[in-house]
Write a structure and sequence with these properties.
The structure is a single chain. By secondary structure, this protein is α/β, with parallel strands linked by helices. It has one domain: NagB/RpiA/CoA transferase-like (Rossmann fold), CATH 3.40.50. The protein contains 5 helices and 12 strands. The protein has an 8-stranded mixed beta sheet with strand order 6-3-2-1-7-10-11-12. A two-stranded antiparallel sheet has the order 4-5. A two-stranded antiparallel sheet has the order 8-9. The radius of gyration is 16 Å and the shape is globular. The chain starts with a helix and ends in a 6-residue tail after the last strand.
Length: 192
């Protein structure tokens, strides 16, 4: 059986085969597909992520969400036992600053939101499995945040990040659905 470490390496190597231009085109297709979903249209409070290299860029949807009156939020790294807090972003340019890992995050001035109030969570990952399994970066930081979220968790991935199987552990949080440039997968058997 493949280990998480080996699978991370394989999926990162696969992502590296796809140019920035191809990833950008695929990201646009993901945004279009996601915006067409009823669950997106019905969402009132959405947790975004700020994409890093190799992740789909769904940030353009944040402006659309703001215009339609949705509350948007981003995670902010705080360290410690509970490494991420969720903060509301009201101004997409003024409210962000470079965070702990060189990723743009909400500033300390942004209001903290209760994770349990999020009704839709956009979830990055290195890979996803057909039953909602998520392969993260290996530290469990995001899983701790996701475990508290009661809303719908949506994995966001390129097609090549979907794999037949992902090894899981008891602390791993599964997603309820997955969106790729060509796929909307509603997961039936989902575990939190």
């Amino acid at each position: 059986m493949i280990t998480k470490k080996d699978l991370r390496l394989t999926l990162r190597e696969e992502t590296a085969k796809h140019s920035a231009e191809e990833q950008n085109i695929c990201s646009q297709a993901i945004c279009i597909g996601l915006a067409a979903q009823e669950v997106w249209r019905n969402a009132k409070t959405i947790l975004f992520y700020m994409p890093i290299a190799g992740e789909p860029d769904i940030w353009p949807l944040a402006a659309q969400a703001c215009k339609s009156g949705k509350t948007i939020a981003l995670p902010r790294y705080t360290g410690g036992e509970d490494p991420y807090h969720v903060r509301q972003v009201r101004d997409l340019t003024q409210d962000l600053e470079c965070g702990q890992f060189g990723i743009m995050e909400p500033s300390d001035a942004c209001p903290i939101l209760d994770v349990k109030l999020l009704d839709f969570v956009l979830v990055p990952g290195i890979g996803f499995g057909p039953e909602g399994q998520r392969l993260g970066r290996g530290k469990g930081y995001y899983d701790r945040l996701l475990a508290k979220a009661l809303g719908i968790k949506c994995g966001v991935a390129f097609d090549w990040q979907i794999t037949a199987s992902i090894p899981t552990e008891s602390h791993d949080v599964f997603v309820n659905c997955i969106v790729t440039p060509t796929l909307w997968l509603q997961v039936e058997s989902q575990r939190v």
